[in-house]
Specification:
By secondary structure, the protein is an alpha/beta fold. Helices cover 57% and strands 13% of the residues. Strands 1, 2, 3, 4, 5, 6, 7, 8, 9 and 10 form a ten-stranded mixed β-sheet that branches. α11 crosses α15, α16 runs antiparallel to α17 and α16 packs parallel to α19.
Length: 468
């Protein structure tokens, strides 16, 4: 019984493990694709919506999560709660340098092993640092920011670490005058004169700048040493925001070109996302309709060199197939993975079928052994019956003995049907049965012969006595 359950367990493992792998692949292909966007009024969210349309056109269901921004997106992607996300490079490292306690909070803690699975897809646009200042706040230069009410952005956004970096360059520290408002709240705060300035790091086409420009209460400051600041941080580069980009009519916003620094807006994913899907998404990003829809001017002008510039994480293989087509294998890893799962499944089925057949054969042999026991017990029963036959009535005794002899013959014929010649020759059990059959047949024939001779002698004796 124990061997039986061990056999069933092994067969179950052989079938279930590859079946689980196959189901896992199919489930991953059919599940909803999650894209981590960003806050309202920012640029991450509309681009995430545009990416969801790309994924939908590729035949996959997609949904967009509204998040606090870059750092939350990184956590969601790393922990598998999102498949794509927009991320500002250097933001986590800046927090690690200036606010390490924040990274230890549960909301931002990421397992380093999971962080190692994050990969780079594309650089979509530049995110320049804006210093928005309220009219009438008395702020004419960066030195006037000290002691003012300044919004640094939510702690899980990309604005916050960039704000900390700027504060350090200004020799300032976090204080009770600093705020952590989201964009929608920030716009209202400027209208109520509740804040004096704000550090905003986002693409120039974000709604927040147009909304601030419409209030008529905001102007923007330049960073005079932007080249030096960019030289100190690898993920930064000098950037110029052109005059009037946020409002041309009436009073232009900004009033003059803004000299500042910018970082990239990277699209990230995990290394376990199918390469073929990432490849098609990357190709869609590099196509003109997507770039025009999202006003990605730099990507439109520079193409692949801009898209692959300064990756902060390893490049996903699907994206590398677009940037370096010669690096793509003849068979994609997704194709190999799916067919490997199918191959393992069918091979396991064949192996399981073989073991099931062997088990059935052994069971059949055991059933034959049980049947052989039945044959032997039947012969022994015939032996017992022939001993108990009364010989007073010769004719009746002969009929009973003939019936027993016929039963022995039938049993022997059934045995020949059930067992192969090889089994009959090599199996001691069948050999014993056949010897018993031969023995009981001889006994029955001998007994019948004696009865017939006894009957004939009795008839001869009666005939002689009558003549005399």
């Amino acid at each position: 019984m124990k061997r039986k359950w061990i056999t069933f367990g092994l067969l179950g493992l052989l079938v279930c493990v590859p079946l689980y792998q196959l189901a896992k692949v199919l489930t991953r292909l059919n599940r909803t694709f999650v894209i981590a966007g960003g806050p309202e009024k920012g640029l991450y969210h509309p681009i995430a919506l545009s990416l969801s349309n790309v994924v939908s056109r590729l035949g996959r269901r997609a949904t967009v999560l509204t998040t606090a921004g870059s750092l939350e997106n990184l956590k969601l992607v790393a922990e598998g709660e999102a498949d794509l996300g927009l991320f500002q490079p250097g933001s986590r490292e800046t927090l690690k340098a200036f606010a390490p306690a924040l990274l230890q909070q549960e909301a931002q803690r990421i397992d380093p092993s999971r962080l190692g699975h994050v990969t780079f897809v594309a650089n979509l646009y530049s995110q320049p640092l804006h210093i928005a200042v309220r009219e009438g706040s008395g702020i004419g230069s960066l030195g006037d920011l000290k002691g003012k009410v300044v919004n640094l952005g939510p702690e899980l956004s990309a604005d916050y670490p960039m704000s900390l970096l700027l504060l350090r360059s200004l020799g300032d520290e976090l204080g009770e005058n600093h705020r952590n408002l989201a964009y929608a709240e920030l716009i209202e705060a400027f209208e109520r004169d509740d804040v004096d300035a704000a550090f905003i790091t986002v693409g120039i086409h974000a709604d927040v700048f147009h909304a601030l420009a419409r209030t008529g209460k905001v102007r923007f400051l330049s960073i005079p040493y932007n080249g030096a600041l960019a030289a100190m941080e690898l993920h930064l580069s000098p950037f110029t925001v052109p005059r009037g980009i946020y409002r041309l009519e009436g009073k232009a916003v900004p009033r003059a070109d803004i000299e500042t620094v910018a970082t990239g807006a990277h699209l990230i994913t995990r290394d376990d996302i199918p390469g073929s899907l990432v490849e098609r998404i990357t190709k869609a990003i590099l196509e003109t309709p997507f770039q025009k829809e999202n006003q990605l001017g730099e990507l439109f002008e520079q193409g692949k060199p801009f898209a692959r510039a300064m990756p902060f994480f390893p490049v996903h293989e699907g994206a590398s197939w677009v940037y370096e087509p010669e690096a793509k294998n003849l068979l994609s890893t997704d194709f190999v993975e799916k067919w490997e799962g199918l191959r393992s499944f069918f091979v396991s089925l064949i192996v399981a079928g073989f073991f099931a057949y062997k088990w059935y054969q052994k069971k059949k042999e055991r059933m034959k052994d049980h049947k052989l026991d039945h044959y032997i017990h039947t012969v022994m029963e015939i032996e017992r019956q022939q001993i108990s036959i009364e010989v007073e009535n010769t004719e009746e005794a002969l009929q009973e003995l003939q019936s027993l002899l016929d039963q022995v013959t039938h049993l022997r014929q059934e045995c020949f049907k059930d067992f192969s010649v090889h089994r009959l020759q090599d199996d001691q059990g069948t050999d014993c049965f056949l010897e018993l059959c031969a023995s009981i047949s001889e006994k029955l024939n001998a007994k019948m012969t004696r009865l017939r001779l006894s009957g004939e002698i009795a008839r001869l004796t009666d005939a002689i006595e009558k003549k005399l």
